[in-house]
Amino acid sequence: GAGVSQSPRYKVTKRGQDVALRCDPISGHVSLYWYRQALGQGPEFLTYFNYEAQQDKSGLPNDRFSAERPEGSISTLTIQRTEQRDSAMYRCASSLGSYNEQFFGPGTRLTVL
Amino acid sequence: GQQVMQIPQYQHVQEGEDFTTYCNSSTTLSNIQWYKQRPGGHPVFLIQLVKSGEVKKQKRLTFQFGEAKKNSSLHITATQTTDVGTYFCAGPQGGGSQGNLIFGKGTKLSVKP
Q: Which of B24, B25, B28, B48 has the fewest beta carbons closer than 10 A?
């Protein structure tokens, strides 16, 4: 079937606005991950879920960032009161389980003006 | 905290030359994964190594996991232009959070035809 999809692909927002980034994982994948990737860097872990349970959120930079996966499928990463330093590529990945290979989505390029 | 380091940061080779990238972790890893990211693309899983001293081959690519499970390498024989991209290694954070992958900064490979 289809791979991991993310929307929107590009998001431009003004400082102080809230944004919600969506991830639709591969059907049947138990684990879902959120990363942030700066240009020229490797993906930086933010948080991950098994089913609907958030297993680890230690990578979320501060309390403006939150994520949910209420039905164990689609996930939303929310950034409140965005700041310019939040500008980055946000990537979602999914896997059959947390010990398996991760399949990455195309990412959402967030620009905060 | 745990760190995963890769060298070199950049590698420029002539088509047909060999290429090697090295990955070192500050802590022992339960496993190590390698990903390739083409310019403008997303990370794509290549392989996972689990056993101490493990060696795996995929056509012209050879992956090794060190005896102490703290280092790994990827060797490409007779590079081709299709090998262009950034190669990342990644290992689990540990402490029970298998899904929390720590990525290295990557080695960017360019191949001159």
A: B28
